Amino acid sequence: MTDEHPFPLKDRSPRPKGNASGRIGRTSRSADSPQLAGASEVLHTLIREFECLPGIGRKTAERLAYYVLRVPVDEAMKLAYAIRDVKKTLRNCKTCFHITETQECTICSDLERDSSTICVVEQSKDVYAIEASGSYRGKYHVLLGAFAPLDGVVPGDLTIEPLLGRVRQGGVEEVILATNANFEGDGTALLVSEKLKAIPEVRVTRLARGMPSGSHLEHVSRTIVSDALEGRREMHDS
Questions:
Q1: CB 218, CB 228: distance < 8 Å
Q2: Is residue 117 within 8 Å of 167, Cβ to Cβ?
Q3: Which of 24, 143, 152, 185 is deepest in the core (most CB within 10 A)?
Q4: Contact, 71 vs 77, CB < 8 A?
Q5: CA atoms within 13 A on the CB side of 194
Q6: What is residue 216's DSSP assignment?
Q7: What is the residue-level pLDDT of the chain in tens, covering all 238 positions?
């Protein structure tokens, strides 16, 4: 009997355009990244690995590599050990798939959280963003990505079935779809909402979109104005 989770800790978001490899943010290791004259193969390997990180270009990768080369050994090893510990100790929560060091995350095990509401997000970083607002006290469900068939991400890659299982157990009154406000996020929300129609006693809602607080119409994009008009609500007396 193993405690390995059927959904290992990974990102199933659509891959960046033009990236044919299996790693997010990976760049070519061919002639596009020539080896520095006189640089050791070990240093060149470190530069190439830094270059694989999202948003890191060749010049930045070189600066990071030379920084690691300059700092004392104990400082460099702190970074190495931190990366090792992340990969060895973190896992997905058995209930909501949020990142945790134990079988169940602190949010799922918190008896003071409202179990009647589940907020569905794409990634764990979205949980942190919502928690930082301090305005939500329910539970979460992390899909581990977004539905994007053209990028090879299909419904079976996401944790939709475990979500349906949680809802079918009873006690859930509302599911909030908090996927990103883009093409993949909207498609994912539509997919999940269609699946949840089979459980009519559950209310399915979507995060509101519209005018940011303190903004002016003349400075807001047409897409945001359109979303604000579609999501308008009645004025109530206070």
A1: no
A2: no
A3: 143
A4: no
A5: 7
A6: -
A7: 445 555 556 666 665 544 433 333 334 444 455 555 556 889 999 999 999 999 999 999 999 999 999 999 999 999 999 999 999 999 999 999 999 999 999 999 999 999 999 999 999 999 999 999 898 999 999 999 999 998 899 999 999 999 999 999 999 999 999 999 889 999 999 999 999 999 989 999 998 888 787 877 788 788 888 877 877 777 765 4
Which residues of the chain does CATH 3.40.1360.10 include? Answer: 112-230
The helices-and-strands tally (H runs, E runs) of the chain is 7, 6
Class of domain 112-230: alpha beta
Residues of the chain with CATH 1.10.8.420: 41-89
Identify the three-state secondary structure at position 59: helix
Report the CATH number of the 41-89 domain: 1.10.8.420
Going through the chain in order, the beta strands assigned E by DSSP cover 91-92, 99-100, 114-121, 138-142, 174-177, 203-206
What are the tokens at 39? Answer: 């640089």
Contacts of 3 (CB under 8 A, 6+ apart): 103
- List the one residue out of 144, 136, 154, 130 whose CA is nearest residue 97: 144
Residues 141, 178 contacting (CB under 8 angstroms): no
Q: Are 132 and 110 in contact (CB under 8 A)?
A: no
